[in-house]
């Protein structure tokens, strides 16, 4: 595509652990410069996908390339940064020493770069790793993933254990990576954590990718809940049948409804009365997404039934 | 030295220092006692040893002639205790190389470094060998110093021959532990197989030698290739030691091939 090699290209990627399905028939392409949010509940196949991309585990069938190479090619892993979902750090070794080792093993990272990231995330690298709190372990994990400025960052549940301020700093780091034209795959079990930085999101459930959608498109589909309060009771007829307005409830001086897309018609109808208060809730993308993919699932279930029939 | 090898040595350092200190203390204590035996051989002579039950004497390699320096070294020091201590140390290193960090999740980042799987295993193994060799060299120094000071009358070359055998024997069992851990990722399994082979292997070359039905099992006991040549008396049994080296190489190759093919941490 435009002569650019896809960062991830998976075709029919499948992993079974014995008879248990980890991931089945994943077809996914991630383009350079993209931030891809990978969503799903625990045990749905997110970590399986990520570990396949890093050659920690091997596919049962199907194929995948990372930065144009087979994940088994060790050299390509120098261009990848990885934060494991369950990061284990232990022992008496200081975090700073361990980071220097990881940097050396990836071909060298300047100490100044490690210190800069530690300062941004407020991580204390002089603490023995076995004594790090959950949040501090996660910071050390983020530093090692970002420090060698990899072309492709794979982050499994990156925000877990981080306090809100550090989460903001982390999201800023992700935006910087994207601004550099580098690529990010980050998993989460909640959309809210990734929607503000992701270009696209994919949902995986029970080992299947059930939906991939651009976040901007999702926003357009967003259903918004609106509440209007007037200085006097309003007639219900004034709001009935407005385009895009649903779930209308008129009770005395207040009107509540949900709107699809533009709020224009509702605003114009309301303008005929005296508005004293207006509440418009941020659209819950997750809700839309969930409705969307539960529909997908039903279709899958029907297809499965048809197959077995 | 590759970064992973340096890092592995750092990880093994504490356990290696612990074992080196422990084995040195054991050597000082047991070899120090020889001073008393030398002074009053009648107390520890054949008449005294005859009081031990036969099976116990067999287990201790016969306990013949512990009043001579060579006999004492062979029976009390190099027969059972020093090999077992070194094997325990090597077994620990064998687990630390792959299975233990895999079970605790620490290996996850290591295998995602730009180092291919076979190299990961070889560098972890080489670091363990260097560590074990350092422990063997240090304890050889201790053994030699005490042997000289209490006047054991055994040459440095003979003590080196025995110490080399201990090192090779421990290396074999350490590599066995590593190989099972590398092939399965299970520390418990690796420990159980190694422990079983150590105990039965030692039993068949000692108490088992008088039971003709199982005496052929000595061929699969690594202890046979260490003890049979009597290195304290006869120097390095080259052929026997090469068998240990060869068997270790086969185990290492198996470990590398198995680890290269396998899913890690599942």
TrEMBL record, chain A:
Please give the GO cellular component terms listed in this UniProt entry.
plasma membrane
- Location of the protein in the cell: Cell membrane
Q: Which CDD domains match?
A: ABC_DR_subfamily_A
- Listed SMART domains: AAA
- Which InterPro entries does the UniProt record give? AAA+_ATPase (IPR003593), ABC_transporter-like_ATP-bd (IPR003439), ABC_transporter-like_CS (IPR017871), ABC_transporter_ATP-binding (IPR050763), P-loop_NTPase (IPR027417)
Asked whether the UniProt record includes Transferase among its keywords, one would answer: no
Query: Which GO terms fall under biological process for this protein?
Result: response to antibiotic
Name this polypeptide is given? ABC transporter
What organism is the protein native to? Answer: Acrocarpospora phusangensis
TrEMBL record, chain B:
Alphabetically, the GO molecular function entries are:
ABC-type transporter activity
UniProt entry keywords in alphabetical sequence: Membrane, Transmembrane, Transmembrane helix
Q: Tell me the protein's name.
A: ABC transporter permease
Query: Per the UniProt record, which residue ranges are transmembrane?
Result: 16-37, 125-147, 159-183, 195-217, 241-259
Pfam families with a match to the protein in the record: ABC2_membrane_2
Record's GO cellular component, any one?
Answer: plasma membrane
Organism listed in the record: Acrocarpospora phusangensis
Give the highest taxon in the source lineage. Answer: Bacteria
The organism's taxonomy opens as:
Bacteria, Bacillati, Actinomycetota, Actinomycetes, Streptosporangiales
The answer to whether keyword Ion transport applies is no
């Amino acid at each position: 595509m435009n002569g650019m090699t896809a960062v991830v290209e998976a075709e029919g990627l499948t992993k079974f652990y014995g008879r248990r399905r980890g991931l089945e028939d994943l077809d996914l392409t991630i383009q350079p410069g993209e931030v891809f949010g990978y969503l799903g509940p625990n045990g749905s196949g997110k970590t399986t996908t990520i570990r396949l991309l890093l050659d920690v585990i091997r596919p049962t069938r199907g194929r995948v390339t990372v930065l144009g190479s087979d994940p088994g090619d060790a050299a390509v892993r120098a261009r990848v940064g990885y934060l494991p979902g369950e990061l284990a750090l232990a022992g008496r070794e200081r975090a700073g020493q361990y980071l220097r080792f990881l940097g050396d093993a990836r071909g060298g990272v300047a100490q100044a770069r490690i210190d800069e990231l530690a300062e941004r995330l407020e991580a204390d690298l002089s603490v023995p790793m076995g004594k790090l709190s959950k949040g501090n372990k996660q910071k050390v994990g983020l530093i090692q993933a970002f420090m060698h400025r990899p072309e492709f960052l794979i982050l499994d549940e990156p925000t877990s254990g981080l306090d809100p301020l550090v989460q903001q700093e982390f999201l800023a780091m992700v935006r910087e990576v994207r601004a550099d034209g580098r690529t990010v795959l980050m998993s989460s079990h909640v959309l809210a954590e990734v929607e503000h930085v992701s270009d696209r999101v994919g949902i995986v459930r029970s080992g299947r990718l059930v939906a991939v959608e651009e976040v901007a498109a999702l926003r357009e589909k967003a259903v918004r809940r609106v509440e209007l309060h007037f200085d006097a009771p309003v007639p219900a007829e004034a709001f009935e049948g407005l385009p895009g307005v649903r779930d209308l409830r008129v009770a005395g001086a207040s009107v509540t409804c949900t709107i699809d897309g533009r709020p224009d018609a509702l605003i114009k109808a309301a303008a005929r009365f005296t508005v004293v208060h207006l509440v418009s809730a941020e659209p819950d993308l997750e809700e839309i997404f969930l409705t969307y993919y539960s529909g997908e699932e039903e279709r899958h279930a029907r297809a499965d039934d048809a197959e077995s029939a | 030295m590759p970064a992973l090898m340096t890092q592995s040595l750092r990880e093994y350092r504490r356990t290696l220092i612990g074992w080196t200190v422990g084995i040195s203390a054991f050597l000082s204590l047991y070899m120090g006692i020889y001073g008393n035996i030398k002074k009053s051989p009648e107390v520890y002579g054949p008449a005294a040893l005859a009081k031990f039950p036969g099976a116990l004497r067999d287990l201790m390699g016969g306990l013949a002639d512990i009043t001579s320096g060579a006999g004492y070294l062979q029976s009390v020091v190099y027969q059972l205790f020093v090999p077992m201590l070194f094997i325990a140390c090597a077994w620990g290193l064998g687990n630390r190389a792959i299975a233990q960090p895999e079970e605790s999740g620490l290996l996850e980042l290591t295998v995602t470094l730009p180092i291919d799987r076979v190299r990961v295993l070889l560098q972890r193994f080489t670091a363990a060998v260097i560590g074990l060799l350092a422990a063997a060299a240090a304890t050889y120094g201790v053994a030699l110093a005490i042997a000289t000071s209490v006047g054991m009358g055994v040459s440095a070359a003979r003590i080196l021959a025995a110490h080399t055998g201990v090192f090779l024997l421990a290396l074999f069992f350490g590599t066995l532990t590593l190989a099972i851990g590398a092939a399965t990722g299970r520390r418990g399994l690796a420990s159980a197989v190694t422990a079983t082979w150590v105990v039965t292997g030692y039993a068949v070359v000692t108490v088992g030698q008088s039971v003709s039905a199982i005496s052929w099992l000595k061929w699969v006991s690594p202890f046979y290739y260490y003890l049979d040549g009597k290195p304290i008396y006869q120097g390095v049994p080259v052929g026997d030691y090469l068998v240990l080296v060869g068997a270790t190489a086969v185990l290492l190759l198996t470990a590398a091939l198995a680890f290269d093919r396998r899913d890690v941490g599942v």
